[in-house]
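Exercise 7.
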Amino acid sequence: MPGSYFIPLTSYYPVVTRATLLQLLAHPTALNGADVRALEQLADAFPYCQTAHLLLAKAAHDQGSMLAGQRLRRAATYAADRTHLRQLIELTAAPATLVAAAPGAAPAPQPAPAFAANEIAAGSPTDEETTEQQAVALPEDKPNQVIGQE
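Solution. The predicted structure, written as tokens, is:
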């Protein structure tokens, strides 16, 4: 409508879903331009969101942006633990390596970690306690929920 004062909500609220943010956290070295723009919107809407600032600093560092120093300083300001920030910045993309296996050969099984009976009984919770704690601690799973909207 011409002359209308209607402004779409997407200009105020970032369109970052929970699933998208979890994907970005799982693969911080694979940030692209659209991800950076979404993170900038998230950081503008929620200025104290350290996750957005950390990922923006990582993207600027990896892309060699002239904003890398500024974003790193801002991320350091909001970071709860700067050692994690440094580890994230120094994280490199894992190279995809292909190992040629002999035809018909199955991959070697990995040995399971061995635990002594006294280690398990000493301080680790039982399966019932762990399941009960998880049932209480886990929020409702809404992977497509837009962050900032209820």
